[in-house]
Design goal:
The protein is α/β, with parallel strands linked by helices. The chain has a single domain, classed as Glutaredoxin (3-Layer(aba) Sandwich), CATH 3.40.30. Helices cover 37% and strands 20% of the residues. The chain has five helices and seven strands. The strands form two sheets. A five-stranded mixed β-sheet has the order 5-4-3-6-7. A two-stranded antiparallel sheet has the order 1-2.
Length: 164
């Protein structure tokens, strides 16, 4: 009889571990925190402006080697699904707008969807989303719920496509 208690504890522990690994389905999606930042083109951009569309939200900096490695793939994914309602917003964590602009222009990337405002403002949005390290990418559905959060190398078309 006393072995039963041990098995129950082991079972509960195993369930907790498997649940923590996400093996029992997804948790309820979280509503994406609202924010506004100025784009590198000088326009005020609010996440709420994109309600009804799917948004790739990428936290990035030109000084971040992994960011510059994954940045082209994020843009390719955006281009693949842009005609189906996918928008890309990039929060730059560069020290200056010029640093971000230089990288983007030298590598042929658009600047209108890159948000900065100032480094403290960009860092504020980073904290709002609980981002520790970069790069970090989110997929936000048409109703404003986060459907993916992670490293952009883990973001595949089959993750984005169901939300389009």
């Amino acid at each position: 009889m006393k072995d039963t208690g041990v098995w129950i504890l082991l079972g509960v522990g195993l369930l907790a571990i498997l649940g923590g690994l996400g093996l029992f389905g997804d948790a309820e999606p979280e509503l994406a925190p609202s924010f506004s930042l100025v784009s590198l083109d000088g326009e005020i951009v609010s996440l709420s402006d994109y309600r009804g569309r799917v948004v790739l939200l990428d936290f990035w900096a030109s000084w971040c080697r992994p960011c510059t490695t994954t940045f082209p793939a994020v843009h390719e994914l955006h281009e693949q699904f842009a005609d189906r309602g996918l928008d890309l917003l990039v929060v730059s964590l560069d020290a200056s707008a010029e640093d971000a602009l230089d990288f983007l222009e030298q590598n042929g990337f658009p600047t209108n969807n890159v948000l900065w405002g100032s480094l403290p403002e960009a860092r504020s949005v980073k904290r709002l989303y609980g981002v520790g390290g970069i790069p970090r990418t989110f997929v936000i559905d048409r109703d404003g719920y986060i459907r993916f959060e992670g490293h952009p190398r883990n973001l595949k078309p089959e993750i984005v496509e169901p939300w389009l």
